[in-house]
Amino acid sequence: MSDADVHPLDFLFHPRSVAIVGISSKKREWNAGKMFLDVYRHSGFSGAIYPVSRSAAEIKGLKCYPSLVDIPGPVDYVISSIPATGVLQLMDDAAAKGVRCIHFFTAGFRETGEEDRVELERRVLEKARRAGIRLIGPNCMGLYCPSSGLAFQYGFPREPGPVAFISQSGLNSQDLINQGALYGVRFSKVISYGNAADLDESDFFEYCTADPETEIITSYIEGVKDGRRFLRALKAASAAKPTIVLKGGLTSAGGRAAHSHTGSLAGSPQVWDALCRQAGVVSVDSLDELIDMAITFRFLKRPAGRGLAVIVIGGGASVLAADGAEKLGLSLPPLSEEVQAELRQFTPIAGTSVRNPLDTVPLEADGGLRKTVEIIARSPAINAILILARLDWGLPRTGDVDAFVQGTVNSLVESARQSPVPLALVARAPDNAKVMAAMEKFYDLTAKAAVATYPDFRRALSAIAKFISWHEARDSLR
What we know:
Elements: E1 17-21, H1 32-42, E2 48-52, E3 58-59, E4 62-63, E5 77-80, H2 87-97, E6 101-104, H3 115-131, E7 134-136, E8 142-144, E9 163-167, H4 170-182, E10 187-192, H5 201-210, E11 216-221, H6 227-240, E12 243-247, H7 252-262, H8 269-279, E13 282-284, H9 287-299, E14 308-312, H10 315-327, H11 337-344, E15 358-359, H12 368-377, E16 384-389, H13 401-418, E17 423-427, H14 433-448, E18 453-454, H15 457-476
Parallel strand pairs: 1-2, 1-5, 5-6, 6-7, 9-10, 9-11, 11-12, 12-13, 14-15, 14-16, 16-17, 17-18
Antiparallel strand pairs: 3-4, 8-10
């Protein structure tokens, strides 16, 4: 890629050095600066790290500097964790040092609603623009970019993936990364941008649209700075990549919360829905649904239609799955007499059903599942298969639980690989601590095998229905 092809914001995610300003020398006191220092030292960041502290000469083996201008080497990226009262001096020091970007973890600006704090944010932005410094925040967690070793919490996956997340909330960013990791979702870039005094949602949508490391764009938005530009950015993003948006602050209570959180103004549900339809994005209503859609776009092949076969254990589960599917516009076509006869050759007749949904017995260990999937997938009306994997049925009371889980996963993964139609799994919530441990291993193994796995039927069916609708809407525009 030539320099001309590089997006003007790409430098944010590839700093040569980071200065962390506001590190406390008190050993027993939690301090955001020390937290960021620890995270960066353990996240794989290979550049220089400069702690800035007025009270410490050294911390954790690194020399501390009293200010930015005292650092001997160049500084690309600054993390500010000082009180808001010190940020104007920090801006002057950053300008003198030639800093390119400042991430303000620092809060206490426009989001407070106080006139003097609104004015303070305005003055910070004025200084930044005069010096050519880009700002992330204030009042945010900043950037996570695994390929560069940027992070803002311990334990984030070190391996990158194709999903970007643009979030006005820091906590939602942390939750999506951690929960997504459980299901195999890995990220190219995660951006927590808070008040968006400078760089805002439109800037980051435009960046992720152009980013070659990003294939799926997800987002959590509270307020929009420039509606016309945002719509253009959303349309461009959706035309290039699957784009999923969660909007906060659509109710009066949510709007008040959003304003006190990031100083954002709420929007009406009707206007937001119209904007999403016009832009062609997937609109979701919760962080769980956002994760489910990321799983679906990441791991599920597109079904050729809305015909779904559901394989469960238990009559009640089959009834609820059938009801849920039909409510969401999915169909459960009945299987032909010939297909049912084939299934009956190895499916016990007592307590089971070989119609659709199929109420059957655990089949993972003896090859029965693979045969079931193979037979069902030949039915012309079946476009996708959803399987309930219950680890509490068949989990050994003693012996090698890991081997049982591995064998179950191997059977499911092999079924998915051989199936000519997309196959997804539902792994139910565990009933006890032993099943919990087995479930964690199950999720890890299916994630590594790139099989779409969901925690319950309702979430799986909703995600699959929206996935199909998104594809149908795109087809209609061609």
